[in-house]
Amino acid sequence: MNGMTDLEEDVKDVDVDASDLPELKQSFDACDTNGDGWINHGEFAVLLHTLDQELSDDECLLAFELTDGDGDGLISFEEFMDWWST
């Protein structure tokens, strides 16, 4: 064991300050409305519309696809952190 928390382990390859992790995880969990540990396209679109109500559905889909780095159709916490810090 290396003494790192799970959140700190997730962030080691992402440009996010460890002190921001609890708030970022809370934001991720708020977006993950079904509680499965992933953000799907619908959940991400709700977040994007909350941030910018002028986005079209196509723009939301493009943003989702760009954020979903591994192309599995879901956004992981690590992908979310990467998107948030960009």
Provide an overview of this structure.
This protein has 86 residues and is mostly helical. It has a domain of 50 residues: EF-hand (Recoverin, domain 1, Orthogonal Bundle), CATH 1.10.238. 55% of the residues lie in helices and 0% in strands. The protein is built from five helices and no strands. The mean pLDDT is 85.
Brief overview:
With 86 residues, the chain is mainly alpha-helical. 55% of the residues lie in helices and 0% in strands.
Question: Which structural traits does this protein have?
Answer:
mainly alpha, Recoverin, domain 1, 86 residues, 55% helix
Measured by DSSP, the beta-strand proportion falls in under 5%
Question: Which fold name is given in CATH as the topology of the domain at 37-86?
Answer: Recoverin, domain 1
Mean pLDDT: 85
Distance between the termini: 30 Å
- Kindly report the oligomeric state of this protein: single chain
Radius of gyration (Å): 13 Å
What about the largest sheet?
none
CATH class of the domain at 37-86: Mainly Alpha
The CATH superfamily of the domain at 37-86 appears as: EF-hand
Q: Any idea what the CATH architecture of the domain at 37-86 is?
A: Orthogonal Bundle
3D shape: globular
Summing up helix and strand content along with how strands pair, one would put the structural category as mainly alpha
Low-confidence stretches: none
Determine the number of helices (DSSP H or I, runs of at least 4 residues): 5
Strand-and-helix sequence, N→C?
HHHHH
